[in-house]
Amino acid sequence: MEFNIQEFMNGIIEKNPTEVKFHQAVRDTLTSLVPIINENPIYCQEKILERLIEPERTISFRVPWVDDKGEIQINRGWRVQFSSSIGPFKGGIRFAEDVNLDTIKFLGFEMVLKNGLTTLPLGGSKGGADFDSSNKSDAEIMRFCQSFMTELYRYIGPNTDIPAGDLGVGYKEIGYLFGQYKRLANEFTGTITGKKHNWGGSLIRPEATGYGVAYFIKNMLENTGQTIENKRVSISGYGNVGAHLVEKLDELGAKVVTASDPYGYIYDSEGITGEKIEFLKELWIVHRSPIKKYAEKYNVPYYENMKPWREKVDIAIPSSKENELTLRDSEMLVENSVLCVCEAANMPVTEEAVKYLKDNRILFAPGKAANAGGVAVSGLEMSQNAMHCSWSADEVDDKLKEIMSDIHKTCLKYGSEKDGWVNYVDGANIGSFIKVADSILSQGVV
Ligand SMILES: NC(=O)c1ccc[n+]([C@@H]2O[C@H](COP(=O)([O-])OP(=O)(O)OC[C@H]3O[C@@H](n4cnc5c(N)ncnc54)[C@H](O)[C@@H]3O)[C@@H](O)[C@H]2O)c1
Question: Any signal peptide, and if so, which residues (predicted)?
Fold first, then answer.
């Protein structure tokens, strides 16, 4: 019997009616998998999809803390341990006001497949809280992180579940989370990645997601006989991912002309280069300041309440949040002859926009392939922690390049079409699914 995707999705929607981002992430994956599932009836017989979309464990908890005025605040925290079929659970923690179970489930599901592409033994999970750290004092952030970890620490460990940072969780938050974990668990292990280098972090981890995206785009262009040099690039965001992406693209000879936040974007026609890169890197990562400050300092245009996708560029890289690049944005990019759209954030391009880009044969890379460098270097941090050693920046960077190249090869293997165009969405989904599904099959009904 043929696999009926609509029927399957109806079941998921009925069971999880409010989780629309989770539906979107699952639908995107299943759409690629239909042929593989039909060719391998064992996946249906053994209920692999049903097992893949149901997290192994979901933890929801209260996070009480006291603000600087002495008032008690209550937030919600979650950890969704999605799949440990190819390794211990692994995935970041997101702190943002709009985080809910739907956000964490879609991100956790994406992690399972992303981690399956990295070539490393990493399962998938994700966590977070509806907490906005951008308007809190350091003392408030510390008290919040300590309360969050006081509950979470029971469920994580170096061989069980290894959290890391994500949106709203940088060095500062990782430090407070790790400090409290160490105190409660009475151990100094590699349970959290993204640590500072002087207390167990890996060199290149902060840069890894952005650098990895740049390496992946280089591979995509080279595969079509083009180079990255002199390409004009628009990005959104300028956080951990965006700022390091700008740095690596500049090094590879491309010119990034935009950066943005929820309130607007800047356009620097000469490119974000030289000392401007250092300024940009500090702006969000250190100061949590708005992008408008870049326009004021370097006297470049700032467009309030607008997104950068209306600018004419060769490459567009959404690097901030899910569903930020819409159908209308993708139409403008295609009208302006964009060559490549690459997701640096998780699921930043809407379903309609992805379809439009693919229908127009634009080179399009999904985040689960292109931004996997971050979690890959987190995996390398785990290895260094387990071996009680520290690799040089060049060693880690070389491994990162190799991993991104391997992910690209997987996409080519499973996503190349007859006319030579590569469907990177199918390539990433199929390549990873086969690895994860076959591991589930090997381990019995668990
Ligand atoms: N940090 C990692 O290693 C990593 C790895 C893989 C994927 N990601 C994904 O990349 C994205 C960015 O993560 P990050 O770690 O850079 O977060 P971050 O908090 O360091 O930076 C987020 C940036 O996005 C901007 N932003 C937030 N909302 C926006 C909006 N609505 N429009 C435009 N800009 C907005 C912020 O101003 C900030 O510059 C997320 O989707 C995250 O899940 C991160």
Answer: none
- Tokens 């309609």 sit on residue: 352
Tokens of 234: 């628009």
pLDDT (tens digit per residue) in 112-158: 999 999 999 999 999 999 999 988 999 999 999 999 999 999 999 99
Ligand 1 neighbours (beta carbon < 6 A): 165-168, 170, 209, 236-242, 260-262, 284, 319-321, 324, 345-346, 371, 374
Q: How far is CA 347 from CA 5, 152, 199, 299, in A?
A: 20, 26, 32, 32
Kindly state the tokens that stand for 127.
């966590």
57-188 folds as Rossmann fold (3.40.50)
Q: Is residue 207 classed as helix, strand or coil in its secondary structure?
A: helix
Residue nearest to atom 7 of ligand 1 (CA): 345
- Mind listing the pLDDT tens digit for each residue in 302-360? 999 999 999 999 999 999 999 999 999 999 999 999 999 999 999 999 999 999 999 99
pTM above 0.90, yes or no: yes
Domain layout of the chain by residue ranges: 57-188, 207-361
Over range 37-47, report the average pLDDT.
96
Estimate the crossing angle of helix 205-223 against helix 240-251, to 10 degrees: 50
